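Pasting as-is:
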Amino acid sequence: MFRRVLVANRGEIAVRIIRAIHEVGAEAVAVYSDADRTARHVMLADFAVRLGPAPASLSYLDASLVLAAARNTGAEAVHPGYGFLSERGAFAQACLDAGLTFVGPSPATLDATGNKVEARRLAKLAGARLVPGTANPVATVAEAVQVAHDIGFPLLIKAAAGGGGKGMQIVETNDAFASTLASAQRIALAAFGDGSVYLERLVRRPRHIEVQIFGDGAGDVIALGDRDCSVQRRFQKVVEEAPAPGLTDAVRARLAADAIAIGKASNYGGAGTVEFLFEPETHETYFLEVNARLQVEHPVTELVHGVDLVHAQLRFASGTPMRDALAQSGWRDPAIHGQP
């Protein structure tokens, strides 16, 4: 096990990870911006390093500052949590280049799954069904208009480099398409530094189902059940329930099989989530995206399966074989997680 781990995050998830680091017998390094200098995660850590002023771009998103904090405190590993730098392949590679262990998937896996268009290609190769849409980001307005007519309205404009619903726009008719496309590209550029977008057919009133996976980075992948995240506000999850209620055994098995196949295709190592849309009327399932990190709603899976995913991440990253790292105490009762 590591002697000291830096947590490259803030707030609730930083507190959660610091607690797990202490539970496995290691020391925790917190980082903070000026806005968080008295935050709980700073108080709980064994060491704390100021990154910079309040804006995330000048603190938590500055990889050079995070790496300097790890180097100056003698950390051996970096746990990115979720958000910020957690799904950036370049940051994971920078950690490795600095002699640090990145607690998460490999840079190659992050690059393959972090871009939503590339992830769709990967899922198709793995045999998962996709929502009809573009195979590549749309390059010009003229191309986008033609593709939109081919797909049909209503449709979704989505950020290729994004997630969490940022930049996602619903277009009901052709009349609003050009202006909505420009808006989605601006939001994507501001949020992710990449204005590329792609188009998908809008699935009306689907259920949002996700499957927790854990892989060894060499083709062995486990599915730890499913979660229903259909209750959302502005594309942000509000209530999550595990296991997802009301699925047939056949649908549940298909979701797990597709998630495992996608994990194998991406040589997935560590904890991650494969998300799907489910049409209740037809029982069709469609690949949505891969979140190559710990999810906000991971506690419901932990409660149902009797596993600590952060402990497992730390043990696996420190060299414990995946199936040994993922010690489970067996099936428990269903669980629900709510967010404010």
